[in-house]
Amino acid sequence: MPSTPNYGIVYPASGSQIDCDAFADFAQSVQSALNTLDAIQDQAQNMPSASIRRNSGSSPLTLGVSTPVQFDQEVWDNDNMVDLAANNDRMTIRTPGVYMVTFNGQQGGTFTTLQSQAASIVVNSTLWYRKRQGSTTNRNFATQVFGLVECAAGDILQAQWLWTGTGGPDTLFIAGFQARCVTLI
């Protein structure tokens, strides 16, 4: 008898008549496949993840210095990675895995010239990802950087911002920092 291509579920009839036992087996196979998909969905929805942001006031940025961004709001955290009262510039990984880490920010302030800006993702004080952009006359300029990071329990994730130019001080008005586990180790 023919079967479905992905799950190998045998069709209940190959001709014009349906056998009751074959149809019962088909229904049970479909239900089993749906249960498997539900379990996969539950696991994906409950993978460790956290999101924090800066959206009140501004964070001062020192010219020519890669500065850890300070965050003021926890958006979500289902694995206790964030403690803004103790450390408002980081996430601490609790569950080993491969994480998709994203940092975005919007710079704007009293600089005279903006030669470059760079958004970075730092793991245990080591630069992992950086996106640098050149000069602009726009006073409110956004940058985003993201990438996969293999993390062990206790690893520290930070978002950092660097700008070069003249004038200042400059500020980071809004920023978001997220880590989502995509696979457990």
Question: What keywords describe this structure?
Answer:
185 residues; mainly beta; Jelly Rolls; 2 domains; five-stranded antiparallel β-sheet; 1 helix; 11 strands
Overall description:
This protein is mainly beta. It folds into 2 domains: 1-46, no CATH class; 49-184, Jelly Rolls (Sandwich), CATH 2.60.120. 14% of the residues lie in helices and 48% in strands. The protein is built from 1 helix and 11 strands; from the N terminus they run αβββββββββββ. The protein has one helix at residues 20-45, and strands at 49-54, 59-61, 67-68, 73-77, 91-92, 97-107, 111-123, 126-134, 141-151, 156-167, 170-184. The strands form 2 sheets. Strands 1, 2, 4, 6, 9 and 11 form a 6-stranded antiparallel beta sheet that branches. Strands 3, 5, 7, 8 and 10 form a 5-stranded antiparallel beta sheet that branches. It is elongated. The mean pLDDT is 86.
Q: What average pLDDT do the residues reach?
A: 86
Integer-rounded radius of gyration: 24 Å
Tell me the helix content.
10-25%
- The tally of strands reads 11
Secondary-structure arrangement, i.e. CATH architecture of the largest domain? Sandwich
* CATH topology value of the largest domain: Jelly Rolls
- Judging from the principal axes of the Cα atoms, what is the shape? elongated
Termini Cα gap: 40 Å
Strand content: over 45%
- Note the total helix count: 1
CATH class of the largest domain: Mainly Beta
The sequence of SSEs as H and E is: HEEEEEEEEEEE
Provide the number of structural domains.
Answer: 2
Instruction: Supply the helix-strand structural class.
Output: mainly beta
| Low-confidence parts | none
Give a short account of the largest sheet.
6 strands, antiparallel
